[in-house]
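Lab channel / #folding
Pinned by the channel admin:
"Please post every new chain as: sequence first, then the structure tokens as a reply. Keep commentary short and put observations after the output so the thread stays searchable."

First post following the new format, from NK:
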Amino acid sequence: MKKIITLSLLACSLAFAQAGIQGGTDGIHQYNTKTNGQMGFSIGTGGNIAIDAWSLSRGGNYTSDGKTYGFNDWDPSLSGNINASVGLYDMVDLGLNLPLYYEHAKSNGPSGSNNMWTTSRGDLNVWFKVRFPFDNEKRLFSAAVQVDAYVPSGEEAAGVRPRHAWYLNGKGETHPFTSNAFGIGGNLILSLDLMNAGVPVRWNGNAGIVYTVDHNLPVVFVYGTGINVMPVEFMDIFVEFSGEMRVEDNGYPVDPLADPMLLTPGFRFHLPFNVDFAMGLDVAVRALKNITFDGEEEMKGSKNYKVKYVDEDGRVSSYYYTPTPLFAGTASLTWRFGGKNSSKKKDEDKDGVADEKDKCLHTLAGVKVDSVGCPLDTDKDGVPDGVDICANTIAGATVDSVGCPMDSDKDGVPDGLDKCPNTKEGRQIDATGCESDFDKDGIPDADDRCPNTKAGAKVDSTGCAADTDKDGVPDDLDKCPNTPEGAEVNAEGCEGDRDGDGIPDALDKCPNTKPGTPVDSTGCTADADKDGVPDGLDKCPNTPEGSSVDSTGCISDFDKDGVADDLDKCPNTKEGVVVDSTGCPIDTDKDGVFDGLDKCPNTEKDIQVDSTGCPMDIDHDGVPDHQDKCPYTLEGVKVDAKGCPLNKKQDLNKLKQGIQFQTNSTKFTKDSYGTLNDIVALLKDIPSSNLEVQGHTDNVGKAEKNKELSQARAQAVVDYFIQQGIDASRLRAVGYGSEKPIASNGSKHGRKQNRRVELVPFEK
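Reply from TO:
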């Protein structure tokens, strides 16, 4: 076995497998019909890598000595190879491929000692391919037959996942890295190369079987297909579908989805020195059935595929078969060299220019090329010489698909050079394809009735000097090109205008108008609105007819309220007052203050207002009198929304109720002194305040005595305040007697309310 392995490694320097990841020229997993050419060599390497435990076994578990263990969640699994091939003839290749594997199958169980966590080789694959047809002509369609031989050189009792479907032994021991038996396979390969028709697309497909001499191993159907698109010379884009399928029940049920089935998109780069690098992503089709990675879903049906495993020390393990990783990164690297007679450089498109120098690698068959492999175009008309029927086309001429000049108007001048491409048939033309024009007036000589027109002169459709207004002065000399027909004109083609008002003398009814004066169509001073003010002085040129105007021509408005005097019913309105259409002041809220002066234009009805039209606020506390429940608040005292002091000891309406007198006397009751002192304190806190004390009585008794009593009581309050330190200038006493009742004197309760003292702030 060691000799076989040694020979295999030496042979890898001479040949490589033509099957996709094993070194093919298209995609990664694709087989194609292309061969190396006689004595053409290729060597390369490739592989894929997955990093999840489910790539090792179903669910990432295995059983040993009756116990179940789980591999680490992230365990790399690598399948690689070294490969080489040689072209025995133009249409025959011989190659081989040696797989190399690595399983990082680490767990908390005996995976390492069971030889699951390991590096190893696989079965050597030697293959032989013949292409049809045998000639070297580039064709759209070609076919090939490939025969593969598999030598059981892989290590037994090592690894976890079986690398091929034909390794699966349903009646004995399965070895992940070898079938442990000689095998042979055959493939029919088809290629459709649309590059040879100028379309950058190539399709490959293959189908075949693999058979092993061990009857416990299944016969396997292998298949694949791929589409390759070449948008640029240095890169292909591809999508592949490939797989293996057991076609006989050898102890395991036949199920295509239980075997390898991959969808692989990717890119292939064509690098310098004939080196190709491809990379892609292997997606297992079965992964699309469980895109949420549900563990229970993954294990469905797995018991039908239990793999028995015996390591090199005889320890028995088992796990459930997984055909491929769910997802794996894959890549390949190949180098091609040599060729027929070992000296001729590779020339893929057979144009005589080696691929390494060929800047146009996919030239169509039969097309002549230049030194860099691109189609020759001697006359630079865009049509390659091999297709060009008119090889000496004049530079700049537009040509058809076979390289001959186009002449749309049949005047003998090719379209690309023809400056007049729509010349009428039969006309005399010059070298540019345009009709001759001796005097250069834009009218062809064939149509020109005046062939000797002076350079630059305007002409009509007959080529003669144009005179649009028929005044006898040619248009190019006529400064007044629109003179009425029959009018007398000067040498410049203009009518006479003695006063220079723009109205010809023949039509001017006022021929002596002062210079600069606007005139009407008759040449007389213009007054468009007929208000007696000439338009040149009229600042209001659109005054209605019959209106009274001032010296500027604007409607008279004595009081400047915007209403003309002849419509103004209130002609002496004060400035700033808003008026109605009759010129009379407007008072929208009917508060007696006109809108133009009213700072509160929406005052409610019957509310007393000040001179600005805003509601009265006697005590200036910010609450209008009609809403103020405490209208005599001292200035500066904080009040609530009703206008009453927040501090009750600052509320004059409350305090006044505490001032009481003995019957028919000016002496205070004992309870009154506390209130009087609170008022004194309030006046001291607000030194800017002034207070009027008002005395009131009911109507019992004589009015004169009641008034004297009320005056005496008001004065008694003032005297007390003065005694307590309040300046007399801040106080005054007024007695009203029974003149200002606040309730009916017809009842005892009403008379009591009328016997009172009012405290009213005042301003000096």
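NK: The first helix runs from residue 2 to 11.
TO: also worth noting, The two ends are 130 Å apart (CA to CA).
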